[in-house]
Structure formats: structure tokens, C-alpha cells
Q: What sequence folds into this?
């Protein structure tokens, strides 16, 4: 068979040969993505194992780091199972975690529900931007923790003051990314929609601007979620009687670093799980963006 035989066979088969070649290429791309995904998972698992192994060697085998500064990982595991059933400063570990989740999710969802529509309106309508932007730019540089005294004065020492502080920390990224995403809408897409008969501003916003801005908006949601978790511990340090931050503060006073690290690990794991959930949501809503990242 000559070298031109595959080409001749493809020409003879016509459309069927092209479809077959397309299917083969598609299958190869899928397999390549699976291999890359497996490699990423293996590297992630190895990195965790290396960190835990180094931690164990430094604190248990070599004893270079005293337990008062960095407890061995087995101590933290022991405290984890102990606090699952035994109360610590008023609540079990599950109770403290549920209180913190209530605070984080309450402030985070309020930030998403208020911040994203506000950012979209500011990005699309000039008058709304002229009204809201000066006050937003004035308040944006103020750290969320600076609002704690006022939040206690306005809402008292209950959970509402903590939700307010978390809301502030997640609100700013949601507004900024929603505004930026709308402003980055391609003019060519707007012109194409106008050529297809879309005339009203609300229709252009709904059919063109918001879909094109979704990746940037969801990126702001993920940043806001991280900011909410980072602010949680500080929000729970004042006038609290439950929560992971309160548990860590009481453990500091009792000189129990293993419980402090346990609280930190739980916050990190919960934040990573929620961030992964948002990433999966972004993959379903904006599959074209995830394909480009691969």
C-alpha cells in the first residue's frame, strides 16, 4: 500500500471518513484530559503526604520542634475524635463547626445576593455607577475587621453582628468582579445582538452582557468565599460563646495548640470543599472557560 492510500481512502469515504477522524481526535483529547487529571490528583496526594510526613518526622521522630510550638499530627487526630463526643467550652466539635458554617454561609450568601446585582447595575448603567461608585470607593478600603465595634453597637453580641462582618468581607469582591465582568463585555457581541433585533437595554444585559461576564463574576464569588473564611476567626474572637474561632481562642488561653491547629485544619478543609463546589458549578455554567484552562 502506498503512502497516499490513507488519503485516498479518506477521499473515497467522504463525509463518513471525516466523521470517523473527528471521533478519533475527540477520543484522544478526552483520554489526554483524563491522564492530565490523574497526574494532578497524584501530585496533590503526594504533596499532602510529604507535608504530613515531614511534620511527623520533625515532631515525633527527630523531636526538633517541641509539642508546645507544633504538636505532632497524632495529637491532633486524638483531639479530633475526643471533641466529636466530648463538649469543649460549651459545645462539641460538630456544634462549633455548625455555628461557624451558619455565620459564614449567612454572610456569604447575603454578599452574593446583594453584591452581584449591584455590580452588574453599576457596570451596565452609567447613572447607577455615578450614584453608587463614590460611596463604594470610600468604604471599600476600610478593612472588615474595623467594622466590628460598630457591628456590636448596631446588632449586639449575637450572630447578626458576625454575619454583618462576614458580609462586608465577601461583598466587595462580588461587586468588583461583577462590575468588571460587565464592563469587559465585547462590543462586537453587543453589535451582533443589535443586528439580530435585540434593542432594549435590559434584553442586551440579560442576553449578552451577563452570559459573557459569568466567568469573571464566578471568580469574584470564589474570592468572596475565601475572604469570608479568613474573616471568620477574627469575627468570632469578640463576644462569642461558640464557633471554631471561639474554640481556638479558648484553646490559646488553655495552652492547647493541638486544638488550635485542629480548628485551623477544619476551616481550611471546609473552605477547600466549598471552593471546589464553586469550581464544579463554574464548570457546568461556563464549560468553555474550563476547556481553555485545560
A:
Amino acid at each position: 500500500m502506498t503512502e497516499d492510500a490513507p488519503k485516498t481512502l479518506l477521499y473515497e469515504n467522504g463525509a463518513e471518513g471525516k466523521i470517523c477522524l473527528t471521533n478519533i481526535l475527540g477520543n484522544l483529547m478526552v483520554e489526554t484530559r483524563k491522564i492530565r487529571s490523574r497526574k494532578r490528583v497524584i501530585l496533590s496526594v503526594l504533596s499532602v503526604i510529604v507535608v504530613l510526613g515531614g511534620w511527623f518526622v520533625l515532631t515525633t521522630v527527630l523531636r526538633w520542634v517541641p509539642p508546645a510550638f507544633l504538636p505532632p499530627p497524632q495529637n491532633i487526630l486524638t483531639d479530633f475524635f475526643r471533641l466529636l463526643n466530648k463538649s469543649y467550652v460549651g459545645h462539641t466539635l460538630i456544634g462549633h463547626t455548625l455555628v461557624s458554617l451558619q455565620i459564614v454561609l449567612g454572610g456569604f450568601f447575603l454578599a452574593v445576593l446583594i453584591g452581584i446585582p449591584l455590580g452588574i447595575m453599576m457596570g451596565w448603567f452609567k447613572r447607577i455607577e455615578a450614584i453608587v461608585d463614590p460611596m463604594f470607593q470610600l468604604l471599600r478600603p476600610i478593612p472588615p475587621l474595623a467594622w466590628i465595634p460598630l457591628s456590636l453597637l448596631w446588632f449586639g453580641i449575637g450572630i447578626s453582628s458576625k454575619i454583618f462582618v462576614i458580609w462586608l468581607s465577601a461583598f466587595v469582591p462580588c461587586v468588583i468582579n461583577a462590575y468588571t465582568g460587565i464592563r469587559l463585555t465585547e462590543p462586537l457581541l453587543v453589535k451582533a445582538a443589535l443586528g439580530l433585533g435585540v434593542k432594549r437595554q435590559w434584553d442586551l444585559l440579560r442576553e449578552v452582557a451577563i452570559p459573557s461576564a459569568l466567568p469573571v463574576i464566578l471568580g469574584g464569588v470564589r474570592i468572596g468565599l475565601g475572604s469570608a473564611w479568613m474573616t471568620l476567626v477574627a469575627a468570632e474572637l469578640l463576644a462569642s460563646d461558640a464557633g471554631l474561632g471561639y474554640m481556638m481562642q479558648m484553646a490559646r488561653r488553655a495552652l492547647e495548640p493541638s486544638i488550635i491547629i485542629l480548628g485551623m485544619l477544619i476551616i481550611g478543609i471546609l473552605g477547600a470543599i466549598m471552593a471546589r463546589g464553586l469550581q464544579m458549578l463554574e464548570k457546568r455554567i461556563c464549560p468553555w472557560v474550563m476547556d481553555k484552562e485545560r
Q: What stands out?
A: The chain has a mean pLDDT of 83.
